[in-house]
Specification:
alpha+beta, 11 helices, 37% helix, globular
């Protein structure tokens, strides 16, 4: 008897636009410290909707949360079942019913998910967050025309000091990425082994590219990490050498990633993968990106687990 995971893997082989974050191979690589499973809804014996989720165990409590490197999850419906509210509601209600007993459920839904009403009916709650997107990448000249003057100055400055290469590899990227966390006094949220596993899965599925800004002395100023699916490219991770941040290389790498998404990948959308931080938001907007909402949907089924979460250090 095939498991729900087995059926989901088969489903993803033919479903036209399952986001990269919800692909089984991606979830396999990211399920550090927990495991993933999936709720499925059927019509005429065929899977037509899915809700993958990642869960962890804390003492007696099993709860669903977001795994490392996964920006969005949430319900996925085949295109022919979208847009008709009655049908959407029936499928979403079925997915909710298929979820196991969980102390809590917490997920960032895809920006494309605009209907969470059946979750509301089941006493889930929602907070709106924002990502930033550039649409219409096929017209790169128009995207470039929408960049503000400050960004243009930074691009000009960086081009005089560095060149962009792709060949330095995951170890060098991880070093630069860690420098950015160290500079802010923050712990690195994932180990080298976790990142290596994540990167290997993306490389095996031809879904990632590195960008490094290197000067004439061989110093790496900045690094960035682009991933993609059939719908969009995502500015996934980045890092800078704190001693070399004034070169503007980080801004140049954003533009080069946008250009790569347009010219090489021929995608229509570039997603900055969000940020609610004022300083980061300003940069996204200066590139001409459009503020795009997405839902954080959650529910506590255990009052005790909720209290424990509230008092944790």
């Amino acid at each position: 008897m095939p498991t729900a995971q087995d059926r989901y893997r088969d489903f993803c082989r033919t479903a036209p636009d399952v986001p990269v974050f919800a692909q089984p191979w991606y979830l396999d690589a990211c399920a550090e410290g927990g495991a993933w499973d999936v709720a499925l809804a059927e019509e005429n014996g065929h899977v037509v909707a899915a809700l993958p989720y990642f869960f962890k165990q804390k003492g007696p409590f099993r709860y669903a949360t977001m795994p490392p490197f996964v920006k969005w999850l949430g319900p996925y419906l085949l295109p022919e079942f979208r847009g008709v509210l009655k049908k959407e509601h029936l499928l979403l209600e079925e997915l909710i019913k298929q979820l196991p007993a969980l102390a809590a459920f917490k997920q960032n839904f895809y920006p494309s998910t605009t209907n969470w009403l059946p979750f509301y009916w089941e006493k889930y709650r929602q907070t709106t967050y924002y990502t930033y997107r550039l649409n219409g990448l096929h017209n790169l000249a128009q995207i470039e025309a929408g960049i503000n003057r400050n960004i243009r100055r930074n691009l000009h400055k960086a081009r005089e000091q560095v060149q962009v290469v792709h060949s330095l590899g995951p170890e060098r990227f991880y070093e630069l990425n860690k420098m950015s966390f160290d500079r802010q006094g923050l712990p690195m949220p994932y180990s080298w082994a976790q990142f290596q596993r994540h990167d290997a899965a993306l490389a095996a599925n031809s879904a990632r590219q590195f960008f490094f800004a290197v000067d004439a002395q061989g110093q790496v100023h900045s690094a960035s990490y682009l991933i993609w699916d059939k719908q969009a490219a995502y500015y996934h991770l980045a890092g800078d050498d704190p001693a070399l941040r004034d070169s503007g290389a980080g801004i140049l790498l954003i533009w080069e990633a946008i250009r790569y998404a347009s010219e090489v990948l021929e995608l229509a959308c570039f997603d900055f993968e969000g940020s609610m931080l004022p300083a980061v938001e300003r940069i996204r907007v200066q590139f001409g990106a459009v503020q795009t909402p997405y839902f954080f949907v959650w529910k506590y089924n255990s009052r005790l687990f909720e209290l424990l979460e509230r008092v944790k250090p």
